[in-house]
Amino acid sequence: MALKMVKGSIDRMFDKNLQDLVRGIRNHKEDEAKYISQCIDEIKQELKQDNIAVKANAVCKLTYLQMLGYDISWAAFNIIEVMSASKFTFKRIGYLAASQCFHEGTDVIMLTTNQIRKDLSSPNQYDTGVALTGLSCFVTPDLARDLANDIMTLMSHTKPYIRKKAVLIMYKVFLKYPESLRPAFPRLKEKLEDPDPGVQSAAVNVICELARRNPKNYLSLAPLFFKLMTSSTNNWVLIKIIKLFGALTPLEPRLGKKLIEPLTNLIHSTSAMSLLYECVNTVIAVLISLSSGMPNHSASIQLCVQKLRILIEDSDQNLKYLGLLAMSKILKTHPKSVQSHKDLILQCLDDKDESIRLRALDLLYGMVSKKNLMEIVKKLMIHVDKAEGTTYRDELLTKIIDICSQSNYQYITNFEWYISILVELTRLEGTRHGHLIAAQMLDVAIRVKAIRKFAVSQMAMLLDNAHLLASNTQRNGICEVLYAAAWICGEFSEHLEEANQTLEAMLRPKVTTLPGHIQAVYVQNMVKLYASILQQKEQAGDKEAAQEITQLMIERLPQFVQSADLEVQERASCILQLIKYIQKLQAKEVPVAEEVIALFAGELNPVAPKAQKKVPVPEGLDLDAWINEPPSDSESEDEKPKTIFHEEEQRHSRHRQPEIDEEELARRREARKQEQANNPFYIKSSPSPQKRYQDTPGVEHIPVVQIDLSVPLKVPGMPMSDQYVKLEEERRHKQKLEKDKKKKKQKKEKRGKHHRHNSLHTESEEDIAPAHHVDIITEEMPENALPSDEDDKDPNDPYRALDIDLDKPLADSEKLPVQRHRNVETLKSPDSEAALVEKKSKKPKKKEKKHKEKERDKGKKKEKEKKVVEEEEEEEEKKGEDLDFWLSTAPAPAPAPQAQSEPALGAAVVAEPQEVKKEEREERDDEEEEDEGKKSSKHKKKKHKKEKEEKSKDKKKSKKKSHHSEEEPPESVQNGTLEDEPLPPMSSYRLLAENPFIKMTYDIQGNLQNDSQVTVSVIFENKSTSFLKSMELNVLDSLNTKMLRPEGSSVHDGIPVPFQLPPGISNEAQFVFTLQSIIMAQKLKGTLSFIVKNDEGSTHEKLDFKLHFSCASYLITTPCYSDAFAKLLESGDLHMSSIKVDGISISFQHLLAKICFHHHFSVVERVDSCASMYSRSIQGHHVCLLVKKGENSVSIDGKCNDSTLLSNLLDEMKETLSKC
Amino acid sequence: MINAILVFNNHGKPRLVRFYQHLAEEAQQQIIRDTFHLVLKRDDHICNFLECGSLFGGSDYKLIYRHYATLYFVFCVDSSESELGILDLIQVFVETLDKCFENVCELDLIFHMDKVHHILQEMVIGGMVLETNMNEIVAQVEAQGKLEKAEGGLSAAPSRAVSAVKNINLPEIPRNINIGDINIKVPNLSQFM
Q: The whole model's pTM is what?
C-alpha cells in the first residue's frame, strides 16, 4: 500500500509535460515511432489517475501527437473529463483537444451537451469563449438543436467578445440545424448594426456566407448592406459586403446600377489593393448582369481593364495573378476590351510562375477569334516545345485542344491546319492525353466531310510511323492516337491513295505490342481496308492482286488470333474465317468484293452525348409494364439494325450544303487550287515536302525571316502547321485585296454621293471566309428531345437545406428548442421537426403549381380559387417591395425612411415615388386584367379591379409601416398563421365617410419614433366623373388629441391634401396627430372640403366625418421572444383582466390572425388551441394576452401596465371577435 | 470560409494543423504532405496563390501561403475569402505570434503548440475570421494567460515537484523511465525513499 502511494507520487514527479514530450521526440529521431508508442503508454497511465492536472497534461500531449498523425479518438472520454474541469487552464486544454479530434461520429459527444451549456452560461467570459470556439469545430446536428437557443441568447451578451463569437458560431448551427435559421435571423440581422465593429464584422461574415449559397433569399437586405458599405471604414467588412453584392447583382440588375457609382468611387479612392481588387471584381459582376444594352458603362469597363492592367504589370506576382483572374471574368462579356491587351497576356505565358501561366492560358482560351486563332496556337505550340515538366505541357496540350474545339470549332477557318496541329501534338512524348487528341481526330474527321481526304492521308502517315508512337504503350499514352488513325483509315478508306501500303502498316508484327483496345480497332478496320482494296482490284480486273491481298491477310492475321486480349482474339479469328472463305470463293473466280463491302455499308453519324437520355417516352408507353406475360423460356427477338442506318441516312440528307452561286464557287475553286498547289501534302509522292514547298511559285510572298528555325526536326512526311499560318496570311491578304478592289469599285460608283469612311484596316472577324467550306455536322438529338437538363443540380449539396425564405414572418411553430423539463408535451422528436421542414421546403412548389393551375383554369374562373392564388402571389410581391422601392429611388444612400420620420415638416407627406409606383402597379394590373378578362364580363372586371385596388392599398400600407424602422418585422398580416392555410383577405382600412363624389377610408398607425404621435393614412377615392381638386382636410382638435399642422398656421386651418384626383382614381395622404393619453379611444369630428370640376363648371363641396382612434391603433406590432415574455409576466407589475366571447366559429388560426392584424399583436408562442401574444403601445405599455379557444368560445386573459388601456383593448377585441 | 490552416517547416514537419472540417488523421497527414510538395517546388518570388485542385475535395478551394524563414504558413480557403485579405491575415498571425512569443522562431512553435492554437483561436474560429486587429488579439490572449497564471497553470504542479526533487540534490534523473516497472530500472531511487 505504502509502495503504491509512493509510486503514485513519483509518477507525478516524473510526468512529462508537453515540452518534455517534444524534446524527447526530437532526441529519438531514429526510433521516433517506438518512442511515441512508449509515450502513449505513459499517457494512458496518466489518464487513469484521478488528478485532473495530470489528465489535462496528458490530453495536452495527445493533442500534440494528433498533429503528428496519431489517432487519439480513444481518449475522447478523458478529453470530456478535462473539458468539464472547473479551472480555465484545464478546460481550455480539453476544448482544444476536442476541437481537434471530435466529429459527428464521436459517440461520447452527446455527453457534452450539458457541460457545454453550463460553460456557455459561465460568468467567466473566457469559459464561454473557449466553449464557443470548441463548439465551432465539433458541433453536431444534435448539439446544434439543443444549444441553438443558448447561443442565440449569447448573441445579445453584454461583452462584445462573446457576442462576436456567438454570431459566428450561429453559422455552424444553421448548417447543422437549418430549422434554427428563421427564428434566429432577426437577431442576426440586428447584429449588423451592433455598436462593436467586431460583432458587426462577424454578422456581415455570417450573412455573406449564407447569402453566397442562396443569394435570392437575402436580396431584401441589400439596402442595409448598401448603407453599411457607404458608412463602414473596415476593409474586411467592406470586402465581404462587396463580395456579397457580387453574388446578388446577377439576381437583380437594378441593384447593379445603384452600385456602380459608389464602387467606382471606391476604386478611385482606396489605397488598399485587396479592396480595390474586390471592387473591380464586383463591378465586373455588375457589368455582366447588365451586359445587355448598357453602352454608357463602357467607361466602367475601361476603368476596370485599366486597373487590372496595372495589377498585371505590377512586379508583385500576387497582383499579377489576381489581375489575370479578374481579367478572365471580363472576358466573358466584353472580350473586345480584353483583346486589346493580348500582348500583355502572351507575355505572361513566359512567366516563371506556373500559376500565372495557367491563368494566362485560361484567358487566351476566351480571347481567340477567327482572326488570331492560328497565331495564338502557334505561340502555344512554341511553348509546348519549350515546356519543362509534363504537367504544364499536358495543360498546354489540353488548352490548345480546348481553344480550337470551343463552341463547335467556331474559330477554325482551316481544318487542314487543325489536323496538322493535332498530328504535331502526337510528337509529345510522355503525355497522358493521347485519348484527347484521338477524340479530336475522330470528331473532326467524322463531322467535317470536306476534310476527310486530308485527314485520311495524315492518318495513313501516322500508321506508317506507328513505331514512333507505339514506344509509349501506357494507357492514355500517345499511342491512343493510333486508335483514331486506324479507325479513320478504315472507315474512310475510299479516300486512301495507297491502301495497300496502309494495310501492310497495320499488319506489322509490332502492332501486337499495342494495348488491346487499339489492336481490336486495328483488326476491325483492316477488314474495311481490305474490302475496299478488294473492290478496287476487282473493278480493275486485277484478280491476281486481289488474291495476293487475301493471301497477305491470311498470313498475318494469326498473330492477332494469338492475342491475349479476348476482344482482339475474337475479332481476329472471326475475320480470319471470313477471309479464308473469301479465298475459297476467289479460287472459284467468283466476284466477292460487292458482298464484302456490303458488310460495312452505311454511315455512322455523331450522336450527342445526352441524346439517349433525351428520347421522350411516347405517350401511353409504360416501360415498366410487361410486354408479354413473363415467359418461361426467354426468346430473344432479332433486331434489325439496318433500319437504323436507313433512318440516319434519311436524316442526314437534310444537312445538305447550302447552294452556292457560280461566282463564289469559281472564286473558291481558284483559291483552293492555289492552296493545293502550295500545299505539300497533296503530293504524297514527293520525298521532301519542304523542298517542294520552296520550289512552288508562291514562295516570294513569304518573307524569309519568318521561317521558324527553332522548330525541331520533323518526322519525315509529318506536316508543319506553321506553313498554314503563312498560307492563311497570304489567303487573307488576297481576300482583302479582292475586297478592297470591290470596295474601290463601289466607291467609284458612289463617289460624290456618299462620303464613306475607309475601313481598310478595320477588317472585322466576319470578313474572314473559311478556307474550306466546311459542313460541321451537328450532333444528333432525338426528335422531341426534352429541353431542360434537370440533372445538373446536386441533391446532396449541404447548403441547400439553408435555402429558406427569411422574409416570411415567423410561424409560431418555429421556435428554437428550449431546454425544459421532460414532462412538457410539446418537446418534439427530431423526426417530426424534420417533417416540418420538409413541408416548408415543399411550399414554393405548391405555389407554382397553383399558379399553373390558375393559368390552366382561366376559362373556368372560380372566383374563390383565384382569390387564394392572388393572395399568395401578393405575398410574394410584398417581399420584394421594400427592395423595389429602394431600388427605384434616386441613388441617395438612405432614401425613404426620412420622409416618414419628419412629419413636422408638414402634416401630410406622400413620397412621390410611391405615387409613381402605384400608377405603375395599376397599369400592370390593368394589363393583367386585359389578359385574363377577355372572357369575363365587364361587370366582373370592375369588381375585380376594386378588389385589386384595395389590395394594393394594403400593400402600400404595409410597405410604409416597414419603413418606420428596419427592425420591425416585415408585416403583421400573416403573423401567427401557418402558411399552408390561406386566410380570407383582410384590410385594416375602415370607412371614414362617403358621398357621391368621394369615398375616404383610413387606417391609424402608431409612430415608433415619437411616443405621442400617430399617423393617419387616408385614402381618397374619386367616385364621380368629375375632377376633384383643392381638397382640404380639417378636424376639430380635442384637448387630448390634436392634428399636427405646419408651423405658423392656426388650429382652425385645414391641411391641404397634396394631390388632385382625376375621375376614378384614388390616392393616399397621411396626417400626423399628437396625443397625450392613449389609454382611451378617441373620436374627432372633421370636414373635408373640395372643389368638383367638370364640363359644366366647378362647385364647392363638403363632407363631414368622424375619426375614430381605437386603442388598438396605439399599439405597435412588436415581436417578443418567449424568454423575455416569461420574465415580463413574472415581474408582477401588470394588471390583469379577462373576457370571454361565445359563438366563435372560425378556426383558431384565423382568430389569431385577426387579432394580430386588427389589434397589432404578435404571437409569442402557440401550443394547440392556446396562444400567448404580445404588443406594445407607442408609450411603452406592455400588453400580454393569453388566448384560449374552447368549443365555441374564446377566452382572453390580458395583462398590461395600465388597467384602463387593457379593458378598453379587450372591449375592442370583443367587438372584433363577436363579428366572427 | 477557411478550410484549413497548416504551418509546417522547410522539411514538411507539421508545426500547427487546424482543419475546419473533420478528416481522419491519415487524410490530414496526406494533405499536409501533398501541400508541402506543392509549396516546396515554388520559388520565393512567385505568387502566393495556388490552385490545389481536388486536394481538399473541391475545386473551389485555393491555397494561400507565405514563407517565413523556416516555416510555411498555408491557408486553404474557398472563393468567399479575399485572396489579398488572407495574405494580410497570415501577416497579422505571424506578427501576433512575434509579439506573444517575443521574437518568435520555429522552436517557440515546436514547444508551445497549444499556445499557438490559443492565439489562432482568437483570430479564426470555425473557419471564419473572428478578429483582425492585432492589439485586440494580443489583449485577449494575454488576459487568458493571466487567468491561467492565477490558477497556477498546468505545469505548476509537476514542475514544482521536480524542482523540489532537484533541491534535494537527486543525482541525475534518467530521462526516459518506463513507468511500468519503476523498481527495476531506477536503482537510485532508494536513496530518495
A: 0.56
